[in-house]
Amino acid sequence: MSAPATDDQHPAQDGSPLFLLDELPDAAELVVGDAEGRHAVDVLRLTRGEPVRVGDGRGTVVEATVLDAGPAGLRVRVTARHEVPAPEPEFVLVQALPKGDRGPLAVELATELGVDRIVPWAAARCVTRWREDRVEKGLARWRAAARAAAKQARRPRVPEVADLLTTRQVCGELEDVDLALVLHEQARTPLTGVDVPRTGTVAVVVGPEGGLTDGEVVALRAAGARAVRLGPEVLRTSTAGAAALAALSVRTRWA
């Protein structure tokens, strides 16, 4: 049996669950196994004939129908295949390391609200410090949170979680974006007062619980970033990025 034709239309959002595979074969039938398959069978209780989506997390998504659900996971028949383009503009979140479990929470919320790339930042006043022997563990937790949230939001693309950067490295990244915004409670310009491009890359910088140092503010501005405020309230570092992404999406992607 030949695989269905590929198109570049986004699959309709009809409530079907999304499963992610590291590789998505170009085949008429697929097997969703391992943890994804166990979740489908034991938690979602999917049965023969139900619609599902399967993607590779990089924009390729297939619509499929369950043929069999059992201990080995799901066996599905592919009915359509889509190549979903990356959204515009690209959203980058530079996130200072929050304390405790708030790092994965920040990643989860940002993913659900449309972030495309997340840059962990070792800011000066971060309470949390990823020691050299814990960097990979921290990155793994953030990347797992991004993948899980992408499935929850039924996003065809899992956001990239970059390596941990210093302030100097963050400034280098900001020099290449089309618009860089630093959330700062003392900024005079509201986020709503900034012209946001509909294409290119928009970066949002969120500081740590202790706030930004004067040196960091100077360095970020020298890299081209603009200081803005979200509103009269001061949000937690783990939620501020998500709030900014939602506001930016309303003005660009959802407009």
From TrEMBL:
It comes from Geodermatophilus saharensis. It is an enzyme of class 2 (transferase). Its EC number is 2.1.1.193. This is Ribosomal RNA small subunit methyltransferase E. GO terms for molecular function: rRNA (uridine-N3-)-methyltransferase activity. It is found in: Cytoplasm. Its main location: cytoplasm. Specifically methylates the N3 position of the uracil ring of uridine 1498 (m3U1498) in 16S rRNA. Acts on the fully assembled 30S ribosomal subunit. It comes from the Bacteria. One of its GO terms (biological process) is rRNA base methylation. Residues 34-77 form the Ribosomal RNA small subunit methyltransferase E PUA-like domain. Belongs to the RNA methyltransferase RsmE family. Residues 89-248 form the Ribosomal RNA small subunit methyltransferase E methyltransferase domain. One of its GO terms (cellular component) is cytoplasm. SUPFAM superfamilies: alpha/beta knot, PUA domain-like. Keywords: Cytoplasm, Methyltransferase, rRNA processing, S-adenosyl-L-methionine, Transferase.
